[in-house]
Amino acid sequence: MSLSYDKPTDVGTYSLGDVVQVIGKVRQAIEGVIEGKRMPIDLALVTLLAEGHLLVEDVPGVGKTMLAKALGRSIACTVRRVQFTPDLLPSDITGVSIFNQETRDFEFKPGGIFANIVVGDEINRASPKTQSALLESMEERQVSVDGTTYLLETPFMVVATQNPIEMEGTYPLPEAQRDRFMIRIEMGYPTPNSELDMLDSHGSTDPLAALQPVTDAAAVRGMIDAVKTVYLSPAVKHYIVQIVNATRNSRDLRLGASPRATLQLLRASRAFAALSGRDYVSPDDVSALAVPVLAHRVLPSTDAQLARRTVSDIISSAVHSVNVPDRR
Fold this sequence. Notes:
Mean pLDDT: 87
Distance between the termini: 42 Å
Strand order of the largest sheet: 3-6-9-1-10
C-alpha cells in the first residue's frame, strides 16, 4: 500500500480536522496489513496522540508484533525493534559509555530506546532487571547513564508485546512497569472472513513490506498539540476522578488505579474525542476507555479470583456505579 503525504510547513497550524484526516490515512495503511481489527488499531492511534505507551497482550500468532511494526512503518520517523530475551541487558536498552582510544575519552553509544517508536517484542521474556531499564524513559522521556541525562525525541512511544503469564519462559511485568503503559489491548482471533482475507493478502506477498509512510514525526507532533486543545468540562473531569476512585473502593480489587491512571485516562479521552472529530470530551469517551486504560493497573482480590470475575468486568461495574454527568 502506498499513500502519499505532504510534509507540514507549520506544525502549529494543525487543527482537529487535520488530525481526523491524517490519522484516517494512518488507519487505512495499518488496516492494509491487519484485517478486521479496527478497535485495537484505533486504541493504538489514541495512545500515539495522547503521548502514551501501548501494551499488546495476547497469545502468540495473532498479530501483536505486526500491529506494532505497521504503526511504526506508517510514520516516517525513527523506529527500533528490541527483541526482549532472557539474556538482554539493561545497557542494551539504555546505551553504554565506551572508551574511545582515539579521543582518549568515553563515548556514549545509544541503546535501543533512542527512537520515536520503540517496538519491544515479547517484553515479558526479559528479566525484571532489564524490564526496569524502561521505567525512566517511559515516564520522564529521558535516559540517565553514568550521571548524564539524555533527552528522548518527541514523539516517543513504546509499543510492547507480551504473551500471557502462563506461557512458559515468561516473567510477570512489575506493577510499576504496567502502570506506565497508557493502554493495554488484546488482539483476539480474527473472524472467519478476516482470516480468509488474510490468506489472500498474506499468502503470497508481505503487505508490511509494501507499506509506505503516510505521515512523519513533525506531523505527529503537530497533531499531539492539536489534541491538547480538546475541551474537557469540569463535570467530565469529576466523572474521571469518580471512576478511578470507584476502583480504589471496590471490594473486588486489592489494588486500585493510581493518580497516573487518572491523568492518562484524561489524555486518552481527549485523543479519542479528536479521532471522532469532536473538540470536546463526552462521558461516553471516558467510559469507552475505562477498561483499556485501567484494567492492567489493578489487582483483583482473592474473593474475586475465586468467583472467576475478570478485571474487565470489575472495571465495567465500577464505571456503571458512577453517575453519568449531563452530556449537554
